[in-house]
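Box 3.1 — From sequence to structure: Mbre TPR repeat protein
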Amino acid sequence: MMADDSEHRLTDGVSVDAVKTFLADLKSEFPDTYTEMTTEDACKQLVVPRTRQDNCAYVDLLRKQSSHEHVGKATVFVSHAWRYKIADVLNVLLEFAEEQRVRKEDSQPVFFWFDLFMNNQNANITANLPQEWWSTTFKESIANIGRVLLVLMPWRDPVPLTRAWCLWEIFCGISNEGTEVNIRLPNSEEKALEEAIRGDFEAVTDTLVRVQAERAEAFNPHDKDMIFEAIQNGVGFAALNQAVKDQLRAWCLHKMVAAVEAMRARGEDETAAFAALCTQVGSVMHEFGEHGKAIAYYETALPIALRTEGEDGRNVAGLYDSLGIAYTKTGEYDKAIEHFEKALAIKVEVLGEKHPSTAHTYGNFGLPYLQKGENDQAIKYFERSLAIKAETLGERHPDTALVYNNIGGAYENKAEYGKAIEQFQKALAVKVETLGEKHPSTAQTYGNLGNAYYKQGKHDMAIEHAEKALQVFVETLGENHPNTAQTYKSMGRAYVGKSDYIKAMQCYKKALAITARTLGEKHPDTATAYLKVGILQFQSGDVEQARTYIQRAHSIYMATLGPDHPNTRRAAQSLQLIQAGAVSREQSAPTEHQPASPTSSPQQQETTANRNLLLRFISSAVVHRSSTARRNLLLRFLGAAAHVHSGVRDPATTGSDSEEEEEEEEEEEEEEEEEEEEEEEEEEEEEEEEEEEEGQTGKAPVSSSRQTDVGGGNVASTTALHDDACKHSTQPLAGWLQKRGRWNTAFRTRWCMLDGGHLLYSTAPERAARRHIPLSTVQSAELTQDREELHVAVPGRTFVFRLDARSELTLADWRNAIEMGASGAK
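Predicted structure (token representation):
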């Protein structure tokens, strides 16, 4: 009997008519107070008195009355808080059922699994169930039901997100594939939210910020520990929070669009009130990342504002500003600039040049230029904004600190790290004074300073500022927060720069632990954290640990991103490198039963080097779906290797089929040389400065043999490349990129090859690599400008690359390989 009761509690639900009947009974027995009664009140005053004699659940009474009419297989699991008003909760259930009926989503009737009805309220049976029951049977039951209805109130700070058991029900819903989670609010809460959307849209976005399931509490501490551990080992708190936020966001957007359409249906779509509503809706869309939809609402409001206020209306200027910001977000920078110009003209005329709002537009004006890489122009607008804000608001104002940060970011983009640091320090001083030392925004500026110092090569200063950021983040946001994890990563990177791999490992492992707890094990960011630890383990000589971590990263990438994603390929490449390294160690290590081989002859060493280098070319070509250019490079290498032993270069190995083709190639080369004459002087100056920089950083200059094209038949070249590659474990990559010049900042197409511990580049694949970047000097390799540029920072300079029309590799591929090579070179 007990088994049957348990089964009914897990699988059955009550009908819509049963809910209506219960609500009518409440109204009949408590006409004056039923609207204020909580679920707990209804339990004590109605459910328990009716079920006490039979010591049963309320659903058992319904079965006796009419089991087929009132009880059936549950289709919706209801998650709610018992402190809610019972009438509100039941009305939400009825409204939800009506929605399903109108939409005809399911021909089957709705039956609610509602704990007030399904559990025996005379005896707390669930209190004695083991934790395994909750993590298996209960979770599977929700999966079988297939849908969770989450009743949330108040909308500003929903109670269920503060109760551990409500949290558990939400978790069981979102962690089961195929289970749908729906969020609903009572009518009173819907009206309050709609008013907030119309009057104070920031209150809506603030609500989403407050969605933090980690705050949940339980009466029994052991229950909380069990629930939190299950969430951390499953989807993670970040995914849980995001699922709730996504539902709230979708609900908010639906209500906003409905409000706009309602005014349009009433014929009020030409009024100032309609324009104001569209502006508010656009602002919320923008905050939610729906920038295209935001633009549509702004553009709907703009002609109405122009007609009702005139060309110089304050709301007109605000709409131009908002459109400029939205177009910046969508990457339409010229349109953004056009709208900022209009906003600025109105504000200067109406408010004057020296007004905080005018300064705000000047600051916005710099953003599209910053994204376009026109950093000097961005700085000009930022500095104008700064001058006005300093005069009108004062230099010690949070808005002023924001501008200092923007200026610092622009200088950092220009690789002028000294100036960037100066601006970040000014921002920090203002934030400490106005917001306090222990504020997340202050910590963020500490982090900015740390990154700039790292790129400048000042690793101790980078670590010092990262530690300050870490301390504040831990105190204000907690240990288990993405900002805290990111700060540990930054510290680990700086320790790698100092070759302090032990501390670097500690930082990376802490970042991994936090990322896994907050985002869950099955998240791409968690995979990246595993990969970083694995690579560092390999560099430290622990091959088995490295393999374990990187295999875990690869498994997560495969499950979340798929086999063709650059991160998945990067992890696969890392595993190949580890396997190659392990085989190399096994082959080279003598055993007590097998004496070490005698020293091989130079010719044998040369042959081995060529074979190994060839294998590396082949493996890289397979991983990157070898392009025609890479195949040609491979063939040229094969031709060179074939003639190494004879010491004679056969013209037939150049790849030309006839003298006529050779003449055509020579003519093309002459034309290219004429086009490059004007570049020579600049490149020679670059080379001289690079050599000076190498001398200043204490790095030995690279021999010219390492700059020789691998297809040139030079024995020293292939051997040197192989030896250095084995030393640094650098991924061989080759392809076309566009490289920005140092002086005139124009981008020119270059054939780039990453090998031998260097990034080599020349004007064509068949030409000798005339320039190089030693990976041992690389401080960072980052994707910027919406991932359209790769910035490779070395002491005193940042190299900037873009994809070429002929590029087959992504900038992420280049970045990943450079990072791996740079880590191995240090």
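Summary of the box: The first strand starts at residue 12 and ends at 15.
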